[in-house]
């Protein structure tokens, strides 16, 4: 009986460790300015805009949105075709003064918040994620419409 309990405890801990790592979509130690500079450079090279998702690993809506955009081909295809995506960490306790300085007070919209930047690194749109929600999740059509409306092709 003791061995069965130990085995179940070990399996539970292993599952928790795997799930914890899988949910780390934001690099909490990364320099957001470097992340943005790299994304903008890539966007220039690939003739795309930047889709910056500001939030944190602590945010369940951020995790839900990330899962939606990475597992739904009707969203991931246009997102990857038209944008370079970058996840910028916002600390629930300390905020992130570098984001505020560079992107403005995007935290006023809640999290996640989406920022579209052109190839010059200029903010051209800030999107409150609430407009893309439906019930306890996200609306696929609303996300696709949002991406279409703010793609480089649509804006320029």
Structure overview:
51% of the residues lie in helices and 19% in strands. With 156 residues, the chain is an alpha+beta fold. The protein has a 4-stranded mixed β-sheet. It starts with a helix and ends with a helix. The model is unreliable at 12-21 (pLDDT under 50).
Descriptors:
alpha+beta, four-stranded mixed beta sheet, 156 residues, globular, two-stranded antiparallel sheet
Short description:
With 156 residues, the protein is an alpha+beta fold. The chain has seven helices and six strands; from the N terminus they run ααβααβαββββαα.
Global geometry: globular
- Summarize the amount of helix as a percent range: 40-55%
Strand content: 15-25%
Sheet with most strands: 4 strands, mixed
Report the uncertain regions.
Answer: 12-21
Mean pLDDT, rounded to whole units? 88
Radius of gyration, in Å, reads: 18 Å
Number of DSSP-assigned strands: 6
Structural class: alpha+beta
Order of helices and strands: HHEHHEHEEEEHH
Summarize the SSE layout with pairings:
Layout: H1 2-22, H2 32-46, E1 49-55, H3 60-71, H4 73-82, E2 83-89, H5 97-103, E3 113-117, E4 123-128, E5 133-134, E6 137-138, H6 140-149, H7 152-155
Parallel strand pairs: 1-2
Antiparallel strand pairs: 1-3, 3-4, 5-6
Helix pairs in contact: 3-4, 4-6
